[in-house]
Amino acid sequence: MEKVYDVIIVGAGPAGLSAALYAGRAKLSTLVLEGTKVGGQIAITSEVDNYPGSMEDATGPSLTARMVDQAKRFGAEMVSDSVVGTDFKDKVKIVKGEKADYKGRSVIIATGANPRQIGCPGEKELTGKGVSYCATCDADFFEGLEIFVVGGGDTAVEEAIFLAKFARKVTIVHRRDELRAAKYLQEKVFEHPKIEIMWNSVIVDIKGDGLVESAVFHNRETGETTEIKADEDDGTFGIFVLVGYEPVTEVFKGCIDTDESGYIIADSRMRTNVEGVFAAGDVRVKTLRQVVTATADGAIAAVEAEKYLGE
Q: Which residue intervals define the domain FAD/NAD(P)-binding in the entry (predicted)?
C-alpha cells in the first residue's frame, strides 16, 4: 500500500529543515523533498555570523549539515526529487515529482527564492568570495573596504546606505540615468558623503583568483569599458547584487494564492488559501529574508500542520 505521510515538506533550506525537525519531534511521519541542493541559499554562504549561537567558524554547508542530521535523528525522510506538479484538491494532497508521486495529509512549501543575477563571467565562481546578494548577511566582511552595489530600486538604495556604515566607499552601479527608488531614499543617497553613483553602467566581467580582484564596467551611453582593480592594500572589494529575488513558485501557480511578484501569501500561522497547505521561509510574502526568520517560519508551519492534522 502506498504510504501517506503526515507532512510533506517541499524544499530543504533552513525553513524546510526546521519544519522537518519540529514535525519529526511531534512524531509526524515526515518527508522532505529537495530537487537540487540541500540548504538553499545558505549552502553557498562561506561564513554565517548572524545566526544566533552559530560558532565562529560556521559556514553555510556546516550549519546545513547539522540541520539535516538533526531532522533525520527525529525520523524525517529525505528524498532528492524535483517537483513538477501538485494536486491539492482532496484531503490527501499529492506532490508530483520527476521520479514518483508523493501523498501527504498536509504540505509545507519551503522552496525559497533565488537572487536575480548579473549573468556576467566570474559572478558564479566568485559568489561568496566577494560577490554577495545579501547586505545584512555579509556587510561586516567588507569593513573598511570599497563596495559596489548593483541596482537602483528601493532595496539597492536602502542597502547601499546600510553598507556605507561598514565600507570606506560605496558606489551604486545603475544601468539607467535615474534611480527607481523612492524620492526620500534618493535624497539620502545624494547627500551621503560615502556614496557615489555610476550612471548608465553595468558590470560585464568579474575577475579574481579566490577573491574578487577587479570588475569590468560598461557604460551603456558612451560604450566605454573600464576595469576597476582593488586597492593594493585591500586586495579585494565587495560586489553586492541587489536587483531582486525570484520566488520558486512556478509549479504552485494556479492552486496557491501569490502576490504580483509570485511570493506565496500566507498568514502569521503560515497558512495559505488551501486548507492543509502551509508556506515557510523566503518563498512567502515577508519583510525580512534571513536564516533566522526562515527557521522560525518552518517551526511555526510544522506546529500549525500538527494542529491541522489533530483537528
A: 5-298
184-233 pLDDT per residue, tens: 999 999 999 999 999 999 999 999 999 999 999 999 999 999 999 999 99
**Whole-model pTM?**
0.78
* Burial (0-12, 13-18, 19+ Cβ within 10 Å), 204: middle
8 A C-beta contact, residue 297 and residue 281? yes
Whose CA is closest to 151, among 69, 241, 61? 241
- H-only helix segments in 28-119: 60-73
Q: Which residue in 10, 17, 14 sits closest to 84, CA to CA?
A: 10
The arrangement of strands across the sheet holding 201-207 comes to 201-207, 214-219, 225-229
Q: How crowded is the C-beta side of 39, counted as CA atoms within 13 Å?
A: 17
CATH numbers and ranges of domains, the chain = 4-115+245-310 (3.50.50.60), 131-241 (3.50.50.60)
Q: Residue 175 has which C-alpha cell?
A: 544601468
Name the more confident of 15 and 244: 15
All cell numbers assigned to 233: 592594500
Q: Which amino acid is at 282?
A: D
pLDDT digits (tens, 9 = 90+) for 44-97: 555 566 677 766 666 767 788 888 999 999 999 999 999 999 999 999 999 999
Active site residues: 134, 137-138
Buried b (16+ CB within 10 A) or exposed e, 207-219: bbeeebbebbbbe
